[in-house]
Specification:
single chain, 136 residues, mainly alpha
Length: 136
């Protein structure tokens, strides 16, 4: 969510800004559901980003313009590819029915995010390459 907020603020492309805002909205909703599930199981969720996500956020904060858009969208493709894989596995293999249900219910949204990220990422690479070669 924090990286999505960053994209909504720092993105150069309107597509990247909208995608970042969608990440904030959709992941806020999923996090609320996950928090309820965790609370019902007596599990405390981490209150801050893990080291890997914090490093990604720090790296992206230093970028701007096309560099930011390209790096952010590439990270979104990579992260959502991993997330979709993990949620697919949990939607069928989780032992806890509530966890299985959460994974199954969340999976279509993650798949939609991945599809959208993949459609935006190549445009960002193409636009950056085009500007380097003089717009051809």
């Amino acid at each position: 969510m924090q990286v999505g907020k960053l994209a909504a603020q720092k993105g150069q492309s309107e597509e990247v800004k909208k995608f970042g805002q969608r990440m904030v909205d959709d992941h806020s909703k999923a996090n609320d559901q996950l928090k309820q599930l965790a609370d019902s199981k007596g599990v405390t969720l981490p209150a801050k980003l893990d080291a890997k996500d914090e490093a990604t956020k720090d790296r992206l904060e230093k970028l701007s313009g096309e560099q930011f858009d390209r790096a952010y969208m590439n990270d979104m493709v990579k992260d959502h590819t991993k997330d979709v894989s993990e949620f697919k596995k949990e939607s069928t293999a989780a032992k806890d029915p509530a966890v299985k249900s959460f994974a199954s219910d969340t999976l279509p949204t993650l798949e939609s995010h991945l599809k959208e990220a993949r459609s935006i990422a190549p445009k960002e690479r193409k636009e950056a390459a085009s500007k380097k070669t003089g717009g051809e």
